Amino acid sequence: MSSAPAGAQGARLEKNVLSVWNCIALSVAVMGPVLAVVLNAPAAGPSTGGAMPLAFLIALIVIIFVGNTVVQFSRVLPSAGSFYTYTARGLGGEAGFFTGWMFFGAYALLMPGLFTAVAAFAHDYVKTTFNAEIPWWIYAFVFMAIVLVLSVRSIKASVQVDLTLLTVEVIVFFILATIAIAKAGNGNTFNAFLPSSAPTGFSGVGLGVVFGILSFIGFDAAAVLGEESRNPHRVIPFAVGGSVIAVGVFYVYVMYGLTAGYHLNDPAHMSAFLKDSTPFVTLAHQYAPWLEQIVDLCAIAGLFSAFLALQNTTVRVIFSMGREGALPKALGRVHARFHSPHIAIYTLTVFTVVAGLIGAAWLGPGATGLYGFTGTIGTVGVVLVYILCNLALIRYFSKRDDRNIWLHVVAPILGCLGLLYPLYVVAVPGQTYPYSLVPYVVVAYIIAGLVVFLYLRARSPEKLAAFGSVVADEPITHAEEGGRFDDRSAHTPIK
Asked: What residue spans of 364-437 are helical by DSSP H?
């Protein structure tokens, strides 16, 4: 099988093949809006009570500040490396390396969880609906094969599949929420946006915000398409910003529909909700029985679209790091015919299958098994990346004439502050097993990154100096002294 050469500047993905809607589809699919509300609503319920819409509204505000960072960077630095390219340009190659290390590791670890979860959902649906017992791992291999073929042959076809599935899923859940609101009667109340509706007030809402923020993880996915989109300096910022706003509004609306339809302002109904693992199916059964089967199928479709989108996102980060020498150079090759990062795709696929099978044997394949554990670890890694990138934005634009105090200083500071509490809640020691292992896994992974960093600094310091140098349509040179980037556009206003 032939490949395009891998070099720091030589291996390029195919340009001008993706529209703004393709890019939006990837970001939205990685967030998995239907998956997020199906899994995170029951998780947030005990702490937020009837204030669930407020918690997700606050989460949206926090993510808007973080999204601003991606938007500002993607306007000037469109690249498949996304966060690590941004951090390398703002804080230096060393910080860029650790950002990339955390970023690709966090996203790669999410893959085995989705590999098992989508199969477990499909298994349960077929068993319940058709009384047919087929091992979950058969579904897993079928879904993995489809994802592999789509990701190797065409990024455009992949995101079109995501866009189609997402459109159906979002419409179904929007209709369900609308019907629930219309029929909720006295379940409709503005108290859903007051902290007093949570069992413990502000602290309960704060814990709910954690689950809200987890629901936005992946909003940045469109940024990795900077080299493949048309007019990336405009398309990527619009796709990232548009995805955050659109999905955020969807979250708040659907969560309000759940709160009103389930009458969470009533203690008896709230007690029933806390015992219900599938509250949206219950809503459909009560208000729109004709939607019940469709809601189940949409949950499976939502998992699959997130699985496909995450594969395409993660392999582009791995490809970019391989192209620039932080990972084996073979990972930086592109397919001569399909222009896809095929070596990175095959490598991630093998890791996903092996880790998924081992993890499922340990914790189980369902949403509360391997998916929950790897998702928690991945979330910690991604939040750390967000914080580093916010800091990089402040420093990067401090050297530019187009610096805006609100967009380039105040917003990233607020984004960092908004992420500290969710990071603490997810990573604090004392969690139940296996979540008690999360801090140790993250620390071990950081130490492994330090070992790789020291090796590169000793053997190939030029690779660290060039880290984050590949930007779409904009080959960037770097000065020889200290490996600092010579960004000739650093003082050029954005047009």
From this structure: 372-397, 405, 411-427
Task: For 23-47, give one letter per residue: b (16+ CB within 10 A) or e.
Answer: bbbbbbbbbbbbbbbbbbbbbbbeb
* 223 in Cβ contact with 242 (< 8 Å): no
- CATH number assigned to the domain comprising residue 41: 1.20.1740.10
| Structural domain for 43, as ranges | 3-486
How many distinct structural domains can be found in the chain?
1
For residue 120, give both structure tokens: 């477990």
pLDDT greater than 60 at residue 108: yes
Block residue for tokens 């340990």:
362
| Contact between 27 and 237 (Cβ < 8 Å) | no
| 198 and 47 Cβ atoms separated by less than 8 Å | yes
pLDDT digits (tens, 9 = 90+) for 332-345: 899 888 889 999 99
Largest Cα span, the chain? 69
Are 469 and 324 contacting, i.e. CB atoms less than 8 angstroms apart? yes
18 beta partners: 229
CB atoms within 10 A of CB 445: 18
